[in-house]
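INFO  loader      accepted 1 record
INFO  loader      residues=199
INFO  predictor   begin
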Amino acid sequence: MICLLCPGPGRRLLKEPFNKLLNYGKTGKGISLGFFRFFRYFMTMETPLKIYTDGGCSGNPGPGGWAYVMVKEDAILSRDQGGQKDTTNNRMELTAVIQALRALKTMNAGRQNAPLCRAAVYTDSQYVQKGISQWIAQWKRNSWRTSGKKPVKNQDLWMELDSLAGEFSIDWKWVPGHAGVEYNELCDRMTQEAIAAIG
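INFO  predictor   done
INFO  writer      dumping tokens
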């Protein structure tokens, strides 16, 4: 499989011209095989990975937790959670997405023939969703300062998220928290478990 939608270095995955993906040969089987390969490629392109994330704190600042769940075609591919003793809600929300994209990058290292390059990230944090899809471009133009000329909070995490996000084609989606969204609710429970484990 080839992901033509991967930005930047990801395009190097295209190891052969697109017409060879269709495999038109002189064997008489080329057209049918080519159609099958193209159909399989097209179907993969149309079913992006879904990543649900959540983060939170007991007190703000205070002990916090994060969690993510990766879903493809209604099957959970990966999930994880963790926590920190002294942190903030926003840092945990950012950390959840960062940990998910780190895991996706590691997962792709073992899937050289079918990398998962397209994803939809679902978060109930407008800080994360708007920050990465709207505000970050201006922050970078302003040398990581806000429109009020103040330093951007959590710059270290924003820089890492920006770098990781650049390796994939991502659609950033906001979902309301505690609204019955199945995997968002699962992430919330995992986050609370991570906070409780800190003690």
